[in-house]
Structures are given as C-alpha cells and as structure tokens.
Amino acid sequence: ALLPVVLGSFGVTGHRLWFSSSLLFLALIWAVIALSLRRPENRALTAQQARSSPVMAAFFWILLEIPIQLPLLLVLLGLWPQQDMALYTTSLVFNLFQAAYVLAQLVHAEMSLPSV
Predict the structure, then answer these.
(1) What angle do CA 47, 99, 87 make, to 5 degrees?
(2) In angstroms, rounded to a whole number, what is the distance separating the alpha carbons of residues 27 and 24?
(3) Could you give the CA distance from residue 41 to residue 7 in angstroms, rounded to a whole number?
(4) Maximum distance among all Cα pairs of the chain, rounded to whole angstroms
(5) Contacts of 67 (CB under 8 A, 6+ apart)
(6) What is d(CA 102, CA 59) in angstroms, rounded to the nearest whole number?
(7) How far lies 55's CA from each of 28, 33, 49, 63, 64, in Å?
(8) Cβ within 8 Å of residue 81, ≥6 positions away
(9) Would you call 110 exposed, middle or buried from its count of C-beta atoms within 10 A (0-12, 13-18, 19+)?
(10) How far apart are CA 24 and CA 7, in angstroms?
(11) Are 67 and 29 in contact (CB under 8 A)?
(12) Are the C-beta atoms of residues 94 and 86 closer than 8 Å to each other?
C-alpha cells in the first residue's frame, strides 16, 4: 500500500512510480500465494475449501484475485498511463477487501469450533 509513498520519496515519479509499485505489489502477491501453497497443509485446506464451498472459492479466486491483479497488469502494460494511480488504487482496495474477507473467515472458523 505504501510502495508509491516510499518510491516517491526517492524521486520516482509518473508512470515509473506506478509501474515499479505495481510490479512490486504483484510480485508480493505471487510470493505470498506461492509460499502459502508450498505447505502441504495449506494446499490441502485450499482444496478442501474449494470442494466444500465452490461458490466461495470462486468468489475468492475470481471475483477478488482478478480485480486485484488485472489493474496491476494494466499498469505494467502501460496502456493508460493517465489511469495508473486509479488502477493501482483499485487493486489496493480489492486487496484490502480480500484481507477483510480472509480475516472474517478465520474468525468464523474459530467461533465455529466446539468449546473445550
């Protein structure tokens, strides 16, 4: 979220600022996904969630991941440089919504566990 602020403080501006921020943000997203799915228990949990609730899995992977990653890719392609900030912000907002969704799932899972 703060990548443009940090890079801007080093004098990076314009399309280079948003290109660099988008590239780093996209790399961070893919690193988190890859590192998470490297653990067998996370792979098993992801597969189990997709089987038990395919609609929610589709919501997560299609309706959240695409709006997070597509705007970043559009910035990287440089098709609409005047929209770089808006595209980056769109990605960031969907990423925050995704984080809230994951947190809500964790809270719900914890509250659904039987008391000991």
Answers:
(1) 110
(2) 5
(3) 36
(4) 56
(5) 90, 91, 94
(6) 12
(7) 26, 20, 10, 10, 13
(8) 14, 15, 18
(9) exposed
(10) 11
(11) no
(12) no
Nearest to 20 by CA among 68, 93, 88: 88
Q: 74-88: per-residue pLDDT in tens?
A: 999 999 999 999 999
Q: What CA–CA distance (Å, rounded) separates 21 from 8?
A: 10
Query: Closest by alpha carbon to 25, among 58, 73, 66?
Result: 73
Cα 93 to chain centroid, rounded: 9
pLDDT for 6-62, tens place per residue?
999 999 999 999 999 999 999 999 999 899 889 888 788 778 887 888 888 888 888
Asked if residue 16 lies in contact with residue 2, where contact means CB atoms within 8 angstroms, the answer is: no
Which has more pLDDT, 73 or 42? 73
